[in-house]
Design goal:
alpha/beta; Rossmann fold; eight-stranded mixed sheet; 11 helices; globular
């Protein structure tokens, strides 16, 4: 009943007058948990770049492969910031398929994600899945809540998937990542994907950014050099910083329609020594 009450309260707090990245991502993936304002901006973006839904699926497929790989390295704890609306398989399902005792904490700031958190909290009997409603900037609140489920004296895989391009340098993108990295024990991993202008014509990247900004959203596609800065002090694992489709493709299945499509995202996994 407590979870149901939280869901109803969350639904009452949803701002349907402004698009939200989590709901737009849901629309790109073919989900139903979005609103006309999200679909409107989504349709504008797809009208300009019809491959965007495929790119979204390629990004999510990277997350699946990276979590599968990290769990295969013995990591049993995961902190996923910027979770988005549940779309199976979710991160905990991938991790617990490798290790049923995996412990996962999800975090997002969109009330609609909280409203659907019940779907995120159904894990294996051996494992633990938790959710915290918080903004990515509020790292203190995220870590305080996560410590109730995760042991930060042991390795944790920190997942920041398709999040940081919605946070500008001026708004503290690098600082919030540093605070989260500082909390991790040696042997932990950072898993990240990020939109970049490097794979597409400058004019096209600028148009996409302008459409997001016209919808009231920050969009800061970062170059490879700026993306690499997030990993300072960490040891990249092979193959290093690459396009999403090039990160260990053998660990998953190809995304339908990805042939001749560039994901438009840099990805990497790096270890804290």
């Amino acid at each position: 009943m407590e979870q149901q009450d939280a869901g109803r309260d969350a639904l009452s707090r949803i701002d349907t007058g402004k698009p939200h990245p989590a709901r737009m991502y849901d629309w790109f993936l073919g989900g139903k948990d979005n609103y006309p304002v999200d679909e409107e901006l989504g349709r504008q973006l797809v009208a300009f770049a019809p491959v965007i839904p495929v790119m979204a699926r390629m990004n999510r497929a990277f997350m699946h492969r990276a979590v599968r790989w990290t769990a295969g390295q013995g990591v049993r704890q995961f902190l996923d910031v910027g979770t988005g609306i549940p779309t199976e398989p979710n991160l905990h399902q991938v991790a617990q398929e490798v290790s049923p005792d995996a412990r996962v904490v999800y975090c997002d700031n969109d009330p609609i994600v909280l409203a659907h958190a019940g779907a995120l909290l159904r894990g294996t009997p051996e494992g633990v899945v938790d959710y915290v409603q918080a903004d990515a900037h509020d790292t203190a609140a995220i870590l305080e809540h996560a410590r109730g489920t995760l042991d930060f004296d042991r390795p944790v895989a920190l997942s920041l998937i398709a999040l940081l391009h919605f946070i500008s340098d001026e708004d503290g993108a690098y600082e919030l990542v540093e605070r989260l990295k500082d909390a991790l024990a040696p042997g932990s991993f950072l898993i990240m994907s990020h939109l970049t202008p490097d794979f597409h014509p400058e004019e096209a990247s600028r148009k996409v950014s302008d459409l997001y900004r016209a919808g009231g959203l920050t969009m800061d596609m970062r170059s490879r050099e700026r993306f690499v800065r997030f990993f300072e002090g960490l040891e990249p694992v092979e193959p290093g910083v690459v396009a999403a489709e090039d990160w260990h493709p053998e660990l998953g299945e190809p995304v339908p329609g990805q042939e001749n499509v560039l994901s438009g995202s840099y990805v990497a996994v790096a270890r804290k020594g």
